[in-house]
Amino acid sequence: MIFITARFRVRPEYADQWPRITADFTAATRGEPGCLWFDWSRSVEDPTEYVLVEAFRDNEAGAAHVHSEHFRTAQRTLPPHLAETPRVVNVSIPQDNWSELGEMSVPGQR
User: Fold this and answer.
1) Of the four, 28, 80, 93, 105, which is 20 to 30 A from 71 by CA?
2) Whose CA is closest to 9, among 85, 90, 88?
3) Contact (Cβ atoms closer than 8 angstroms) between residue 69 and residue 24
4) pTM of this prediction exceeds 0.85
């Protein structure tokens, strides 16, 4: 799978509205057949920073995402709300879902 984590620093006047601003893009991406997950979180230390954790089945699914109409729309509509260019980590890894964090396993879970 392709695993991507991106940090978006949003202009302060848009920080509280960011989930609504990105709602159509988020819903469309989650609806892509190759999207495994596409989840936003807000930083607990910086209320203007959102972290996006996303994964796509394979390179073809990632390419389909980048070439989609909703991605092109996001390229036009999201940057005016940002304070800086998002930062990203993008890797291909040989798995297709989350692994358990064994160092913090919950007794009796299963």
Assistant:
1) 93
2) 85
3) no
4) yes
Q: Which of 63, 73, 53, 5 lies closest to 32 in space, CA to CA?
A: 63
Residue 39: how many CB atoms within 10 A of its CB? 11
Distances (CA, A) of 34 to 27, 48, 87: 14, 29, 23
CA distance 51 to 6: 6
Strand order in the sheet with 2-9: 35-42, 49-56, 2-9, 87-92
Specify burial of residue 12 (Cβ count, 10 A radius: 0-12, 13-18, 19+).
exposed
* pLDDT (tens digit per residue) in 72-102: 999 999 999 999 999 999 999 999 999 989 8
Question: CB of 80 within 8 A of CB of 22?
Answer: no
Mean pLDDT of 44-65: 97
Q: Rg of the Cα trace of the chain?
A: 15
Kindly give, in sequence order, each residue whose CB lies less than 8 Å from that of residue 71, ignoring residues fewer than 6 positions away.
Answer: 25, 29, 65
Query: Which tokens belong to 56?
Result: 């796509």
